[in-house]
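Following up on my earlier thread - several people asked me to post the actual chain instead of describing it. Fair enough. Here it is, all 611 residues.
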Amino acid sequence: MPLSRYTFQPGINKEGTSYSNEGGWFDCDKIRFRAGRPEKIGGWVKNVSSTFLGSCRRLHQWVALNGDKFIGLGTNLKLYIKQGASFYDITPIRSTTSAGDVTFSATDGDATITVADTAHGAVVNDFVTFSGAATLGGLITATVLNQEYQIASIVNANSYTIEAKDTDGDTVTANSSDSGSGGGSVVGAYQLNTGLDSYVSGFGYGSGYFGQSDWGGGTSGFASQLRLWTIDNFGEDMIANPRGGGLFYWDKSNGVSTRAVNFSALSGAADVPTIASQVIVSETDRHIIALGANTIGTSTQDPMLVRWCNQEDAAVWTPKTTNTAGGLRLSAGSKIIGASRTREEVVIFTDIALYSMQFIGPPFTFSINLVTESVSMVSPQAAINANNAVYFMDQDNFYIYEGSIQTLPCTVRAYVFDDFNYSQVYKVFATRNAKFNEVTWFYCSSSSNEIDRYVTYNYLDRVWHIGTMDRTAWIDIGSSTIAPLAAGTDNYLYDQETGSNADGGALTAYIESADFDAGDGNQFMFINRIIPDVYFYGSSDDPTVTYSIKTRNYPLGTLVTATTASVGSTTGVSNVRARARQMRVRVESTDTDNLWRLGDTRFDIRQDGRR
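Reply from S.P.:
Thanks for posting it. Predicted structure:
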């Protein structure tokens, strides 16, 4: 019988049914399309052997004038600088006590230490470093006390507990001699309040102004909202802002062993914002822009206020005729969601509108113009600049901004938004992979409170593909990318698109076609041969993929895997046996050291009866 050549349309199409998408691909995981052909994505390996604390939801990379490479990394617990193979803790200090303000008490046979400090302002999981302490008289020595601790519980506004440990991190249990208070010289240095690892409806961003009242203030004993950072570089230095918190500055000249400081601590600081939803540096004119900032002279956040510093001066925010500092309040919406920098402008999203912010020079410095009131973006990090355009996700669709707004035709829209966890929508983030002309959104499916899926748009080929992956932040660095694992796993950074394995293990990937038939299903089909067309590259000596033929007789019938065939790099023909009105083909790999690209598969198909 003559062979039938099957060339499926590129991209995944799940907008209709599998039967209505005949001639296309219907499902995949860890697959991309390049030049119209499906191929397995690259693998990943650990970037460094060291780990960070908390769930990372922001990465930013830059290079200093001397060639030093830095990555800023913000988690719900810490703020880091990564240089080389090491993470350096630069979490700002929010307060330092006077000597003697802190005292300790211990109980015989217990590792729990109660710390007394009036109006400590801490929340559970905060970090505090003690110094100047003396022994409690027994096993709780000065060495045990004088180190960094993570707060285990909040007793009340004036006390909390820690778990005693030695310098190796092993638990230390007090004995009957531990009856002292640590002496009169104890100093506690409290780091910035930590944030949550999940979004909580009714707190923080979802209820009133960001930072309003006691956000992170410790009155309830826990941090009140998902911790999202924005990080940017101001020349060689780094600026950072925990959403709904203060603005912080890390000076490269002081080295990686020094912590970031509040903008108010900078030399010559004048009217710096005390709270903001996001900070971003304008591209060519070097202004730091604070979105959702407090008005000058108050500590109350205005969620629609945009402020900027004097040009090339991070410390000066007082508008004068002799400088370029200033501010404007947006009118369309109730709060600023976020912003994305693009060519010669900053695109700002409120909850109901999109604005374009452009540098125009003195005396007004910036103009902010309303583009449209019809769209927003679903989360503060759901927009990405790629290929001189801004791609973003809203509540139920995808868009592109190139001076005007256009809807991105999406062939997986229903698949994404019909199975979407809106309660954790602020975890959504967008990223790009310039090497493969892709923009990707990572999100939580309806059955997960942590990111477990991605959806990708290839803006060159204009096709979509989908998959599963637990990433919480991602940056594109030339021809390679770095992404940490999701919260609750192993807190490593990984180099993406590296090799063919999942950090040494098998990276399972598959693609599956829509149903196809013969004569609109009026006849049964019988397949007895497959002529595969697979290109293996960067693979082991004996890579394989598995071809599966799935069958059913009617569109709503149960799919059954009728036959499979293992295909290697030298396989010429595979003999199979399948009979049905409708069929689909699935190609999958489950072994290590295997990268592959599909061509056009040929099937030996003929009309047949039931038997």
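The domain at 93-191 is CATH 2.40.30.20 (Elongation Factor Tu (Ef-tu); domain 3). That should answer part of your original question.
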